[in-house]
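Progress report, Aim 2. The chain analyzed during this reporting quarter is listed below.
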Amino acid sequence: MLTKEDTINLVRYYPNRKQKNKKPYVVDARKHGLKEKFFATNEEALNYAAEISENFTMHTSGKAGKTLRKIFDCGHHQPDKNCCYKKVRRDSIKTGDLREHSFENSMRDIKFFLNIKIDGKKVGEMTALEFYSNPAQVYEWIVPATQKNRVLKTVKNYWASYTHFNSFCVLAGYADHNIFRDTRPKSGGKENTKSDKIERVQRNIVEQILEQLPTGNSNQLNGYKKCNWRLAAFFAAQTGLRQGEQRALTWNDVDFDLRSVAVDKGIDRYGKINKTKTVKSKRKLRFAPVVVKALQEEYMRQGKPPKEDLIWQDTRGHTIHPSMFIKKLAKAAKLAGVPRITWHELRHYYASAQLALKGGTKDGIWKVSNNLGHSNTVTTTATYGHWLNDYEEDPEETAREDQAALSY
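Predicted structure tokens for the chain:
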């Protein structure tokens, strides 16, 4: 940033230009590598000179004229250079610091941001100087455009992407500070009609849905012949695995003797195998004898396949798209005449069953949290804490665990 005296000295007045009806005031910053710019009044010239002073690094590096869309994606990603935001985020996937679906979500959010119009001009078409020299337009235009028809939680997700993009802009010298950190919206554009508290999925509903799911030996519900959908849903309800974790399971991960499964990976929506969601998500999980028996029967039904084979796969032996898991549950619920549930609600069912068994016992919350693969017990109590008052201590926890298992 220039001193006040240096800023004023950038402005010069040419009377002869005035006589020729030309703009007489000029901001001359050629010694800083910038072109001359002429103005009609002294006030306009001083304002521009002040702008140069405040964004001196950006101006002198030639970055002031670069559009935000080019900052986002330059179009020619250089291997050894952080040339644009998209390239930096792509590199984060390669290093394992960012999951593919998180990358896709952030790209979607930033593209929406770049298409917001400010006085008829898209943000992506604005130069770094145009956008960052007037922070007020974030509050005036970006906030309401993002809030429109979105609940607060969704708005916060979008804003997190904006903030991350603008952190890159600061680091790359396009802005002096991250204006999005100071303008976080406090509300959404529509009311969230969903309850903050997760509701229990009743056991009888899960059992009725299981009865309608195909086992892999029939064409019921047009299911994949290789996939035992009934076992897939039963396993989810009895282990609480996330869908991506379950889809990644191979027979190698199952230990029939120890009644356990090793969870150390997950498959994302694009079919790519990644690390587990958190460090604590990597775990060994024991399950009831009824689950072991069902898995052993499935292993025999599949003809004792190679241990590296996926347990749940399509007719070609590939991973099944996550949308199929949702569709199968929806169709089975319709046939059973019960309310529709999502696949993730089978995880909630497992959590409720485990809390009923262990919620009131010593180290009970820790055990449930560990089984669910939560990063800590705070996550568990924040998600399911409203259920805990319903459960009393039960000293016969181990004996009751198998008794409480669903029938298969």
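Strands lie at 11-13, 25-27, 37-39, 117-118, 121-122, 254-255, 260-263, 266-267, 273-274, 283-286. The first helix runs from residue 4 to 9. These observations will guide the mutagenesis work planned for the next reporting period.
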